[in-house]
Amino acid sequence: MSQLRKTTGSASDDGEIASFLDRVKELSPADPKAQGRLIFAMDATMSRQPTWDRALSIQSGMFTETRRVGQLQVQLVYFRGFDECKASRWVANPEALARLMTAVECRGGHTQISRVLAHVKSEAGRSGVRAAVFVGDAFEENIDDVCKTAGELGLLGARVFMFQEGQDANAELAFREIAKLTRGAYFRLDSSSPAVLAELLGAVAAYAAGGQTALESRAKSGNASQMLLKQLK
User: Fold this and answer.
1) Range of weakest confidence among 95-104, 134-143, 157-166
2) Averaged pLDDT for residues 121-144
3) The whole model's pTM is what?
């Protein structure tokens, strides 16, 4: 993956969906004259191997419908192995993002969410990115240190949307706190939620790219987008 560079820096129930969408609606739409930017971060450690293929399918297809908008740039960030945390170039083509994602394989190692948040903070200052999505199943770091960075992101106006696979209570506590401090949202994934996840992520991507106009177009065929559009009115 020569195109990747190392980063710098240290229940699908109605209530949760509504809460998630309520947070998403507060995202500022992209300037029509500029491209919206969204960071998509993944835990690629070995614990995610059993559900990796399913997750890749959902994640790589999440921006397909934003092709019509043509204003969203996405950067893939992932961590795995020993001290490996990398970020891709910015891409605007869904196929390019899919290729980047499918080239990543799981490797044993500890979580590096602190480095992901530090990277988001850096990009918020450099390129103005104001939204990031994270998908993972564990948390193995110092919660106070991570919360400090999350709080700084909140002050910068960069929201993080945390998606948890599995039932790890420690991860849930940390993910919810990160979402709270960044004024983002928390959502739990399970075996029954792929379609819901894909639609929610697509709604985030479409709104980040083209604002309400893009959502109105998407809402014709997406329930989650319809819910989000209703919240915006």
Assistant:
1) 95-104
2) 91
3) 0.78
DSSP 47-68: GGGGGHHHHHHHHHTTTGGGGG
Which residues sit opposite 161 in a β-bridge? 133, 185
Q: Are 116 and 74 in contact (CB under 8 A)?
A: no
Q: Domains of the chain: which residue ranges?
A: 5-232
d(CA 217, CA 233) in angstroms, rounded, equals 15
Do the beta carbons of residue 153 and residue 181 sit within 8 Å? yes
Name the token pair of 186.
């928390």
> Distance between CA 156 and CA 154 in Å, rounded?
5
Q: Which fold has domain 5-232?
A: Rossmann fold (3.40.50)
Q: Parallel, antiparallel, or unpaired: how do β-strands 185-189 and 72-80 relate?
A: unpaired
Q: Measure the CA–CA gap between 104 and 111, rounded to whole angstroms.
A: 16
Rounded Cα distance between 22 and 134, Å, is 18
- Secondary structure class of 29 (helix, strand, coil): coil
Asked if residue 146 lies in contact with residue 117, where contact means CB atoms within 8 angstroms, the answer is: yes
